[in-house]
Input
Amino acid sequence: MNFVVAPSILASDLSNTTTAIRKIESIENAWVHLDIMDGCFVPMITFGSSFVRDLRKTTNLIFDVHLMVNSLEKQIELFTDAGADYITFHIEATNFPFRLIKKIKDAGKKAGISVNPSTPLLFIEPLLSSIDLLLLMGVEPGYAGQEFIDISLHKIREATSLREKNKVNVLISVDGGINNKTALNALEAGADILVMGSYFFSNSFESVKEFLSTLRSK
Output
């Protein structure tokens, strides 16, 4: 199987991000997933654009910045300047998605939209031809370590069908509850990118690498 692994740096030891980045760099076809939370759209507050800018100095890996924030127009420019490659925002946080997509694209970045488990995909179908990435949440956003919501598999399949129907090349990413028990099902349903947090950083790194290698061989 060919897929991207996007470990969420938030789940790592943030006092030692250099080690976390080196681990990600040693994985085949890997990105860095950066969860930006503002304490408003979701309860937690994580880190901001200055953290992303500093991290950018340490690696050439692709940065997928996942904005779980309100006031999106104010935030996008900060993260395009900080070194993001993809900027993904929640459809639930804006009434003006085309405006935000244009802002991201005008900055020379890839645009992504994220959808919560309870949000119907019909809301994003008109946007599919304008975006590069569709991020489907496997859990309610805002907290690490949650169990994968099974209905999310149906949404991955639905997204795959919409991609085929609309003849677009948008990447399908899945975030939340992805581990050695759920990853294969997500890929078989049509996911291209697996965002891994707790599983990637809380288990033996050798066992994680072995699992990913086995998964790629299927």
In short: The chain is about 35% helix and 20% strand. The first strand starts at residue 4 and ends at 7. Strands lie at 4-7, 32-37, 63-68, 86-90, 110-115, 133-137, 171-175, 193-196.
